[in-house]
Amino acid sequence: MEFFSHQTNFQFMATRKVWYTLSAVLMIVSLGSFFTRGLNLAIDFTGGVSAEVSFTNAANVDAVRAKLTADGFREPQVQNFGSSRDISIRLPPDAKQSATEVRARLETAMKSIDPGAQVAQLDVVGPQVGNELKVSAMWALFFTLLLIFLYIAFRFHTWRLSLGAIFAVLHDPILVVGFFSITQMSFDLASVAAILAVIGYSLNDTVVVFDRIRERFETNRRSPASVVLDQSINQTLSRTIMTKVVTSIVVVALLFLGGAVLKGFSAALLIGIIAGTYSSIYISAAIALDCGLTAEHVFPTVKKEALDHMP
Amino acid sequence: MLEYARWKYILVAAVLLLALLFALPNVFGEDPALQVARKDHATLTPDNETVVESFLRDHGVHFATSYLDQGHLMVRFASVPDQLAARDAVNGNDDLKGSYITAVSFAPRTPEFLRALGLKPMPLGLDLRGGLYLLYQVDVNSAVAQALEGYAADVRRALTTANIAFRDVTVDGPAATLRIQLAPGADAGAARSALTQPLQGLAVTAATGAAGPVLAATMTSQQIRERQDYAIQQNIVTLRNRVNELGVSEPIVQRQGIDRINVQLPGVQDSADIKDLLGRVATLEFRLEDMQGNAIEAAQSGRAPLGSKLYTHTRFGRPVLLKREIIATGDQLTNATTGQSQEGPAVNIKLDARAGDNMLKTTRQNINKRMAVVLIEKRRETTEVNGKPVSREVTDEEVINDATIKGVFSNNFQITGLGAGEARELALLLRSGSLATVIYEVEERAVGPSLGRDNIDKGVTALIVGMAGVFLFMAIYYKTFGLVADVVLLANVVLLTALLSMMRASLSLPGIAGIILTVGMAVDANVLIYERIREEIRKGVSPQAAIRAGFEKAFSAIFDSNFTTFIAGLVLWVLGTGPIRGFAIVLTLGIATSMFTSLMGSRALLTLMYGGRRKLARLSI
Description:
The complex is a heterodimer. By secondary structure, chain A is of the alpha+beta class. Chain A is built from ten helices and six strands; from the N terminus they run H-E-H-E-H-E-E-H-E-H-H-E-H-H-H-H. In chain A, strand 3 and strand 4 (83-91) form a beta hairpin. The mean pLDDT of chain A is 79.
């Protein structure tokens, strides 16, 4: 069974201006949302208290919020979480109270609404730990990008392809972050892990395309670069789409069956995979082309030996 | 021709068989269990086992089996309520409670023959087990400041002995410097030479200030680091001891980063008690006993004679009077271990050099007098007043040992005249008492057990559904070759599980997500090969040559593309902590295993299936 006729001949290079524009628009929207609305950072980054409470009957979110405020908790954020009986509570960091006190007070407050209430999970994160995590995440991102840039330059003998790869790689996390910013889904440490996995994974496709480009340049040095790039992408298209479909099956299973804890993570993965596929096909090779990629760069011709060694 | 080296077949088969063996323990699941250990840390005897078993039967608590495992008793139950009932019964009985510590845990149902080989299933992380995670920050600066205080005391003594007038000796903690303000007109040179011994190893500079000459002694960065490391190591040891006393099974206490310690307590629910226990700050003091005063009189009148202090809380029952001077403190204790002496079990004590000097002086002048060790604990107690929790700091001073000074010694000596259990306990207390730096909590996460169970179920369901989806899809799209890919995929998961079990890496929810992701990504390599094979066939290449060409040409693409994901996984592994680290480990290992199974496993299988056939017209791909 095959989805594709084996002779696709999409004109990727010729139409690249269209794709550049589309990417630019998506990135601007993402960045715009990020800088205005910002992310809904989880307590991993902000510090504070996060609790999950399950009640015996359906919980009334407003009543819970009112009770917490009346008990002296500042700015509680209360939401339904999972089922109608579970709620999640989020409190900003308060250096004056110890975690024990917070837990005890929270339990008393919840039990006064419903004696059978149980605190299923309670996380308390100090603000400085949260800050450090932010810094760590930045470093992780930076190092990954650096190492990848170097590796590709090394394997493919030219920085032009590296640049194309890096562009594609930067493009994907921006879109994922934009997604989180627009939907205001909770962005926690697992989301960062998902983004890093997406970076690595989207590079997969880019490298497969590059590998094909290298192969084609090896045998065919005369055709113009744009033709070779087009052919390479077309030839790898079936494989790219296939893998993505398969991985998506798995991630969708995770998204719907993995529970509320992994929701942010799975969503980040799914968006990242879609964005990654798009960038690998439409962006990375195009950028390399616009940097002036030719066969020469990937396979430098061996210079003829000097006639003799005499001056 | 389509061939595959024989040794490669053997390698693949051997690896997969081993993997199956290592992964097998994970299939069996686990039972709720109760771990019973003796309070004096001795090994449990079969007699003890019988006592506990009959106790449980008498109280109508159902248990499935019980057995001795590494010196503890493990009792298995059919359900969690039974387990909790047993724990409450044992803890509620005064006899048993005094001699035994219980801990709720999970016992894997691994069959005997696997257990005999030392094979165990993967340990489950806190988000799958339920439990408590605490992150403590060690105040390393106070460790440096304390060291400097020690130097300051020595400096004052040395200058007084050398008759050099000085105004003040101050400690500048953040700068790790000691400032010695000499009196105007004092001889700075003489001061320096008088202080060469006490300030050995420090960088000393002299300056002239408005109030007279000033000497500044700074700790080198290596000394600072050593002091900080020592403080953290001591804290870890102390926390570990305290955690062990709590009766938690498989607790983890480890250093995290430069100055943090993380404590993981699976199965623990009630955090208030635990944290009070762990947050105790303990110090030690060695003092001479006041041989002239009468302790009983002082206890009755409530007043101690001048120069002495009364202690009513002692380990041996009677009150005691100790002199005010402190000979050595807990942070000067470098080690306390149990050993043997001519009189029987003993505790070997090692102090650092300066405490050693002090001890030498004291013991020289006080043979046959008594010296005592005081354990001072500061802890937070949370009690309920009018239904509201109230937290206060409580200081508890206890004299844990009072012994006669039999000889002259400096920094190495023994305390004898103890029973074996007493010696062990004293050594433990001495070691825990050398925790002088303050630790405070910066992060806490508690997961309830039902949530943990829930997470496991969800994770496993997603994994199974995801895998089923992939299997079906591959089989439809690539027909027989797709089935080959499915078999290879299964082998991949088995291999990954085996590696994780071998590494004893904790499985967390993101870890399960990592396994699921690996399943999706592992298919990639096979797809690359198969698409290549299809291409070759379209070009008119013969089937067997096509298979071979497919593998050859796809190899570089597979390697490079997986490597980049590998880099991302590695960075996460190094920089991540906790569950994220678990995810990174799974991702990174998963890439390695998927490369192995896709390249070598598929090739072996396909060559077996198609290599020998002479007339191969079409491939089912």
